[in-house]
């Protein structure tokens, strides 16, 4: 394949051309008033890692309590607060903002845009997040403690909590507003700011998955806002939406919540699919197999995600016909997901593969995500789900999809793009240590939970009968190992960010073909000041003129 170096780049790509751009700000103003998509992307990624550490600490507190039967450290109410807030912080504080960080950094570089469409709104949507995170964190210290009704905030429990529940409601509102603004920004950027030659069906898959995710966010975030607003008015203003004594229906909350909640699961996994679809072709040194079918499969998953919400509710007493509908609709969603897995596998088939850290995480992602997908299919079967509802089997399934899915894909993305972000190559030995340590410890922590669930261990319980002890102890050891493994990632990133390590060329991966690899490493503060004209050479590599 022909190599692209910084020598081939027109001056308009760098920061020498200031006709249309102001100089790079310095000091605290650069971050507080940031409008540059790279700076805002960096802030999103730093914020999400801080939230990952907070949510992870709560998870390790849970596992510490569960190491032995009996109540060792925490009363059940505090244990339930840890459970509930762990889920909320990981979903709204860690996974979603991390993907927005990737989107901010990479989408303008991949489509040849100078920045995001609404730069100041981009800044505002980020700074809402630390406010919401602060509200969530201090809710532990108000009378009655934090939300203990599960991350799903089910009524009637959420109607009975103390003021910590209100803190959570306001935090969810603020994070939802941030997500809506971010989604609008991504849609307008992708549809309006693509460089000449960058047609929609030539865009990198990561841009496609984010475009579809952004539409999902716009559709379902207002639904979540409606659900938590109804909880708020039930709690303080005398309404009875979910209060059976006043003619309301607690199950209505589940319907409204899961109409948001199931598309939300795909909001957290579609950008991961996009990252994997960038990494695998680069290290297989082949174009992505079935590009158009990947785009259509992503759109199909998004549409179907609106039609399956009540598979979370098989035990609420719905009629058998409804159970059958939601069971079959849920099984249908496995088809476009299977198309993706097939296409990734076909891309690797007979490719000239090398196994640098991004590729290891991408292959690891496919392995563990498929396990999570199969357990999801099992839970989609109504008769089986009625038995496994609210057991550790569900916890295992969810974490195989979210941790091994979203998180492993993010790790692949970090190692793949960090040369472009920092201008330095990461430490390959430490990267591989991080992969193997994460992969082994993750499976040690979560695979035993399938057996706990099959044996009838309910989730969200602080105590349990002695026969579950062995699996809980294995899971706890795996969880601590997994948590500590992430400090390797922190060290690797800080090492590259501080300028240590070998300098990265413009295109450090031989098989990388997208537009972001035509700009120098690190990407200059102002990229594509004048829109490039994008073409593809005989090897399928994006070139600009």
Automatic annotation (TrEMBL):
Pathway field: Energy metabolism; oxidative phosphorylation
Domain Cytochrome oxidase subunit I profile: 22-535
GO biological process: electron transport coupled proton transport; oxidative phosphorylation; respiratory electron transport chain
Pfam families the record matches: COX1
Record-annotated membrane-spanning stretches: 40-62, 82-105, 126-149, 169-193, 205-232, 252-276, 288-310, 322-339, 360-384, 396-418, 430-451, 471-494
Coiled-coil region list: none
Annotated GO CC locations: plasma membrane; respiratory chain complex IV
Topological type in the membrane: Multi-pass membrane protein
Sequence segments annotated as region (Disordered): 1-20
Main location per the UniProt record: membrane
EC numbers on record: 7.1.1.9
The keyword Cell membrane belongs to this UniProt entry's keyword annotation: yes
GO molecular function: cytochrome-c oxidase activity; heme binding; metal ion binding
Entry keyword Transmembrane: yes
Subcellular location: Cell membrane; Membrane
Keywords: Cell membrane, Copper, Electron transport, Heme, Iron, Membrane, Metal-binding, Respiratory chain, Translocase, Transmembrane, Transmembrane helix, Transport
Reactions performed catalytically: 4 Fe(II)-[cytochrome c] + O2 + 8 H(+)(in) = 4 Fe(III)-[cytochrome c] + 2 H2O + 4 H(+)(out)
Listed PANTHER family: CYTOCHROME C OXIDASE SUBUNIT 1 (PTHR10422:SF18)
Function: Cytochrome c oxidase is the component of the respiratory chain that catalyzes the reduction of oxygen to water. Subunits 1-3 form the functional core of the enzyme complex. CO I is the catalytic subunit of the enzyme. Electrons originating in cytochrome c are transferred via the copper A center of subunit 2 and heme A of subunit 1 to the bimetallic center formed by heme A3 and copper B.
NCBIfam families: CtaD_CoxA
Family statement drawn from the similarity comment of this UniProt entry: Belongs to the heme-copper respiratory oxidase family.
Name this polypeptide is given: Cytochrome c oxidase subunit 1
Source species of the chain: Candidimonas nitroreducens
């Amino acid at each position: 394949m022909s190599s692209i170096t910084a020598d081939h780049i027109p001056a308009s790509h760098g920061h020498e051309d200031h006709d249309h751009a102001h100089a790079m700000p310095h000091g605290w103003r650069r971050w507080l008033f940031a409008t540059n998509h790279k700076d805002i992307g960096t802030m999103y990624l730093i914020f999400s890692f801080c939230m990952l550490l907070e949510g992870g600490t709560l998870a390790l507190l849970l596992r510490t309590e569960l190491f032995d039967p009996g109540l060792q450290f925490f009363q059940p109410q505090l244990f339930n607060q840890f459970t509930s807030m762990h889920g909320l912080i990981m979903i709204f504080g860690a996974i979603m903002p991390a993907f927005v960080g990737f989107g901010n950094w990479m989408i303008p570089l991949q489509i040849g845009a100078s920045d995001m469409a609404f730069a100041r709104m981009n800044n505002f949507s980020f700074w809402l997040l630390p406010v919401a995170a602060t509200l969530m964190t201090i809710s532990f210290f108000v009378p009655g403690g934090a939300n203990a009704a599960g991350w799903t905030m089910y009524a009637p429990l959420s109607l009975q909590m103390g003021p910590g529940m209100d803190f959570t409601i306001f935090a969810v509102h603020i994070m939802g507003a941030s997500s809506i603004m971010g989604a609008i920004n991504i849609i307008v950027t992708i549809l309006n700011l693509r460089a000449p030659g960058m047609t929609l069906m030539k865009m990198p898959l990561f841009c496609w998955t984010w475009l579809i995710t952004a539409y999902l966010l716009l559709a379902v975030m207002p639904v979540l806002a409606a659900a938590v607003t109804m909880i708020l008015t039930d709690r303080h203003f005398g309404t009875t939406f979910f209060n059976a004594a006043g003619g309301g229906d607690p199950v209505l909350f589940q319907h409204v919540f899961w109409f948001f909640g199931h598309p939300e699961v795909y909001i957290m996994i579609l950008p991961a699919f996009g990252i994997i679809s960038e990494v695998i072709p680069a290290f297989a040194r082949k174009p992505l197999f079935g590009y158009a079918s990947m785009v259509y499969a992503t759109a199909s998953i998004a549409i179907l995600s609106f039609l399956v919400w009540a598979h979370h509710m098989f035990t609420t007493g719905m009629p058998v016909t409804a159970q059958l509908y939601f069971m079959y609709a849920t099984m249908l969603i496995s088809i476009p997901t299977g198309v993706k897995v097939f296409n990734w596998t076909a891309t690797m088939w007979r490719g000239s593969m090398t196994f640098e850290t991004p590729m290891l995480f991408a292959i690891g992602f496919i392995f563990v995500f498929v396990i999570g997908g199969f357990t999801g299919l099992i839970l989609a079967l109504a008769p089986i789900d009625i038995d496994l509802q609210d057991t550790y089997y569900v916890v295992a399934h969810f974490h195989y999809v979210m941790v091994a899915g979203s998180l492993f894909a993010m790790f692949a993305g970090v190692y793949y793009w960090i040369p472009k972000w920092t201008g330095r190559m990461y430490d390959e030995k430490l990267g591989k240590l991080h992969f193997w340590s994460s992969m082994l410890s993750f499976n040690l922590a979560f695979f035993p939970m399938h057996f706990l669930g099959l044996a009838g261990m309910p989730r969200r319980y602080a105590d349990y009968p002695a026969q579950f002890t062995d699996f809980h102890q294995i899971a706890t050891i795996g969880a601590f190992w997994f948590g500590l493994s992430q400090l390797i990632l922190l060290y690797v990133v800080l090492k590259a960010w501080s300028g240590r390590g070998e300098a990265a060329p413009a295109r450090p991966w031989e098989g990388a073909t997208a537009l972001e690899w035509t700009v120098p490493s690190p990407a200059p503060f102002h990229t594509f000041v004048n829109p490039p004209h994008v073409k593809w050479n005989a090897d399928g590599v994006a070139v600009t003129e």
